[in-house]
Amino acid sequence: MKVTVLSGGVGGARFTRGLLALLDDDADVTVVANTGDDMWLHGVRVCPDLDTLMYTLGGAVHEEQGWGRRDESSRVSADLAAYDVGWEWFTLGDLDLATHLARTQWLREGLTLSQATERLCRRWGLAAQGVRLLPMADEPVETHVRVAGGDLLHFEEWWVRHRAALPATAFVQVGLESAAPAPGVLEAVRDADVVVVPPSNPVVSVGTILAVPGVRDALATTPAPVVGVSPIIGGAPVRGMAAECLATIGVDATAEAVARHYGLRGGALGADGTPGVLDAWLLDTADEDAVGRLRASGWRAAAADTLMRDVPATARIAAAALALVGR
Ligand code: GDP
Ligand code: CA
Can you give the pTM of this predicted structure? Predict the structure, then answer.
């Protein structure tokens, strides 16, 4: 079955790993990754969400942390700090640095980010599992955060250094207007049997992918059903600071509000005149009371245990999401 997933880092990667376990030999999965968190650091191109996906699906991720390599060390970062260069709050692991160095070399040789990503993924055997990883765009797009007082910070500085605690007034995607969906992205949405919006950050992960010119319209018009899984359980993101991102754009941190923010396909246009992108919404049993209200507004909705405890539990969540749209 052809499944296309629009993913951020940890939440989307864990979901996709469960989806692959569910589909097994039948997997033909395309993951479109957010690249809005990308940045240059110490002269190398860092792509946090692409790498979290690659390490998770390739069996190399630091399991407890959810991102980065397992058995990692940070000798290079520590030595860089002794020179007083870079960002002391953002550690690049020694093994992780090899990924960034390889990617940067290929980008400098003239490869696109898609091509560099494909080369990196060869090592981790993603194709053999039936999964292909695409950046949302080949052009650099970087999410910046406008904080009180008007300053713009790179998203990672706001997120990692300030733990999203600096009140923010807006997210600005620098480079977005001149970006286009990477090769294969629109086709993957159009030709899928089902498109899944996993439990990723709806603002700075999925929201950024949807903002790439052409992507939202592709979702609104694809013949494939589109199903989302709530990243909010019982009124809170399971891990991380997604609530701060939602607050910045004026959306309540509830499963129902996030669904309505994505919008129903064929339903009313959003406040900014954009079409909805989902047919169906899987939320947690803790939020079951929203199912009836969503159904009354034309949604296909259901409740399940959506905590991604381990791979089997996550495969069951993926199965429930696909079942909601008859797949
Ligand atoms: P990031 O780029 O690493 O922040 O990862 P994503 O954007 O893909 O996903 C982060 C979001 O996943 C978090 O903000 C949570 O809302 C959500 N999330 C994480 N773990 C779980 C889980 O076990 N179940 C559900 N339903 N959502 C989760
Ligand atoms: Ca991310």
Answer: 0.97
